[in-house]
C-alpha cells in the first residue's frame, strides 16, 4: 500500500467522518494524555530550573570546612578545646593534597543583619565583610558590574581596596553617583572602592551577596588584627575526583596538624556541596521518572481507546473489507490500511496535544515574567526539543501497536463471510 495514495487517504477520512463525535472523543483521549505529559514535564523543569538557579554558578564539586570545639581528648588536650586554621594550614593543603584544584581561605567580620559597621558620609549600614583571595570567584562567582574583583597584587601589597555588592551601593551612594574610586569607612578604616557586583543567585542567598563587601584576605588579617587566622576554607576538587575524596584527605591532614583525635567528627565542621547537589539531582530525576510513568499511563488509556475504536470501525466495514479481499487485496494491504488509520489518528491528536502543551507552558512563563512573580520556586517551565521528538516517536509506535489487533481482526475476515454480512 502506498502511503501517499490519495484514494487511501480518502478512505481514512471517510471512515473517521462517519461518526465525528466518536472520532473526536477517541482523539481527545490521546490529546489529553500527551497534553498532560507535556504540562507535567514542563512544570517539573520549572521547579528544577528554579532550584538550579538558586545555586547560581556555584562550583558543585566543592566543599567548605571550618573549626569547632573538639569532642574527644587527645595527646594531652582535653575535650572542648578550640583551635583555628591558619596560613600555614593553607600552605600545607597546597603541598600535601594534590586532589585540590582551588583553595580559597576566608575570614569574615560583621553581618548585614547586625550593627552598622560601614560608613560613608552621613550614610551607614551593616554588611558582611569578607577577606578573600581571587580564587574565591572560581568557587562562588558573582557578576562584576563595574570595576574589578580582588586580584593577587592586592593580596601581595595588602592594599586597602573594597569590592561592594549592589545592596551596599544602594545604601551608601545616590543613584547618580559612581562608587568606583570613592572611599568608605569599614569598622573605622578607610577603603577605596575598586569594583561593584551583583549576585548570580536568587532569594535569600542573593540578598546576602548584595549586602557583602570583599576585601583582600591579607589586608583584612593585618588591619583588624586577625593574625594568621583562617575562619574557613572553600575548596574544589580537580576534574574527575569526587569532592568527598578530597574532603576526607584535607580533614585528615588538618586533624594531624592540630592534634585532633582521628575519630573526632565534631572538631572540624564541613559542608559538601557535591553531596547536596547530587541529592537534589536524584530528587528531580525521581520526579521526572514519576511524571513519565503517570504521563505514559494516561497516554496508554488514550491509545487503548484508539484500538477499541478501530475494532468498531473494522466491524462496521466488514463487507467493504470482504469486497477488497475478493478483488485481490492482500492481507498486507488490509493491515497497512488499518495501521495507517490508527497511526494517523494517534499522531494528529498527539501532535496537537504537544503543541497545545508547549504553548500553555510558554504562556505561563511569559505571564510569570511580565508579572514579576517570585522565581525562587518556579522558573522557565518548558520541555527540551528532544523530549518533544521522543513523545512524537512514542505516539507513532503506540499508533502502530494500537492498530495491530484491529488489523489482525480485519485479515481474519473471510471474503465469503464478509460478503454475506449485513
Topology:
Layout: H1 6-17, H2 20-53, E1 62-67, E2 85-86, H3 87-96, E3 100-109, E4 118-120, E5 123-125, E6 128-132, H4 136-139, E7 143-147, H5 152-157, E8 161-165, H6 166-172, E9 183-186, E10 189-198, H7 203-210, E11 212-216, H8 217-223, E12 229-230, E13 232-237, H9 243-257, E14 268-272, H10 273-316, H11 318-326, H12 331-371, H13 385-411, H14 415-420
Parallel strand pairs: 6-11, 8-10
Antiparallel strand pairs: 1-13, 1-14, 2-12, 3-6, 3-13, 4-5, 4-9, 7-10, 8-11, 9-10
Helix pairs in contact: 2-10, 2-12, 3-9, 10-12, 10-13, 12-13
Describe this structure in words.
With 422 residues, this protein is of the alpha+beta class. The protein has 2 domains: 6-55 and 278-420, no CATH class; 84-257, no CATH class. Helix content is 55%, strand content 17%. The strands form 2 sheets. Strands 1, 3, 4, 5, 6, 7, 8, 9, 10, 11, 13 and 14 form a 12-stranded mixed beta sheet that branches. It has a two-stranded antiparallel ribbon with strand order 2-12. A hairpin with a 2-residue loop joins strand 9 and strand 10 (189-198). Helix 3 crosses helix 9 (243-257) and helix 10 packs across helix 12 (331-371). The radius of gyration is 34 Å and the shape is elongated. The model has no long low-confidence stretch (mean pLDDT 86).
Amino acid at each position: 500500500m502506498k502511503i501517499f495514495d490519495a484514494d487511501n487517504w480518502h478512505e481514512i477520512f471517510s471512515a473517521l467522518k462517519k461518526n465525528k463525535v466518536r472520532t473526536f472523543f477517541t482523539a481527545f483521549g490521546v490529546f489529553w494524555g500527551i497534553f498532560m505529559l507535556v504540562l507535567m514535564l514542563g512544570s517539573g523543569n520549572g521547579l528544577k530550573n528554579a532550584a538550579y538557579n538558586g545555586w547560581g554558578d556555584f562550583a558543585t564539586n566543592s566543599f567548605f570546612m571550618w573549626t569547632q570545639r573538639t569532642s574527644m581528648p587527645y595527646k594531652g588536650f582535653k575535650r572542648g578545646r578550640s583551635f583555628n586554621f591558619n596560613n600555614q594550614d593553607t600552605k600545607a593543603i597546597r603541598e600535601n593534597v594534590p586532589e585540590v584544584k582551588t583553595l580559597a581561605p576566608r575570614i569574615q567580620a560583621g553581618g548585614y543583619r547586625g550593627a552598622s559597621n560601614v560608613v560613608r558620609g552621613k550614610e551607614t549600614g551593616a554588611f558582611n565583610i569578607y577577606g578573600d583571595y581571587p580564587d574565591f570567584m572560581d568557587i562562588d562567582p558573582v557578576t562584576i558590574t563595574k570595576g574589578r574583583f580582588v586580584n593577587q597584587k592586592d593580596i601581595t601589597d595588602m592594599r586597602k581596596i573594597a569590592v561592594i555588592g549592589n545592596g551596599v551601593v544602594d545604601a551608601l551612594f545616590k543613584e547618580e553617583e559612581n562608587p568606583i574610586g570613592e572611599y568608605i569607612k569599614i569598622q573605622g578604616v578607610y577603603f577605596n572602592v575598586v569594583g561593584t557586583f551583583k549576585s548570580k543567585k536568587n532569594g535569600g542567598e542573593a540578598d546576602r551577596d548584595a549586602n557583602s563587601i570583599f576585601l583582600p584576605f591579607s589586608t583584612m588579617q593585618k588591619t583588624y588584627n586577625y593574625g594568621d587566622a583562617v575562619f574557613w576554607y572553600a575548596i574544589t576538587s580537580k576534574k574527575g575526583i569526587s569532592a568527598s575524596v578530597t574532603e576526607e584527605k584535607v580533614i585528615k591532614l588538618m586533624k594531624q596538624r592540630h592534634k585532633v583525635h582521628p575519630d573526632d567528627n565534631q572538631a572540624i565542621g564541613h559542608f559538601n556541596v557535591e553531596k547536596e547537589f547530587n541529592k537534589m539531582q536524584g530528587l528531580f530525576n525521581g520526579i521526572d521518572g514519576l511524571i513519565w510513568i503517570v504521563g505514559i499511563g494516561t497516554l496508554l488509556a488514550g491509545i487503548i481507546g484508539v484500538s477499541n475504536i478501530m475494532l468498531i470501525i473494522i466491524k462496521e466495514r466488514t463487507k467493504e473489507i470482504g469486497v477488497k479481499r475478493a478483488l485481490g487485496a492482500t492481507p498486507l494491504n488490509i493491515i497497512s490500511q488499518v495501521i495507517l488509520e490508527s497511526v494517523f489518528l494517534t499522531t494528529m491528536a498527539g501532535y496537537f496535544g504537544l503543541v497545545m502543551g508547549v504553548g500553555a507552558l510558554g504562556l505561563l512563563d511569559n505571564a510569570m515574567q511580565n508579572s514579576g512573580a517570585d522565581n525562587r520556586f518556579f522558573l522557565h517551565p518548558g520541555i527540551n526539543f528532544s523530549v518533544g521528538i521522543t513523545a512524537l516517536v512514542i505516539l507513532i509506535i503506540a499508533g502502530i501497536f494500537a492498530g495491530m489487533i484491529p488489523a489482525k481482526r480485519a485479515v481474519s475476515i473471510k471474503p465469503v463471510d464478509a460478503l454475506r454480512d449485513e
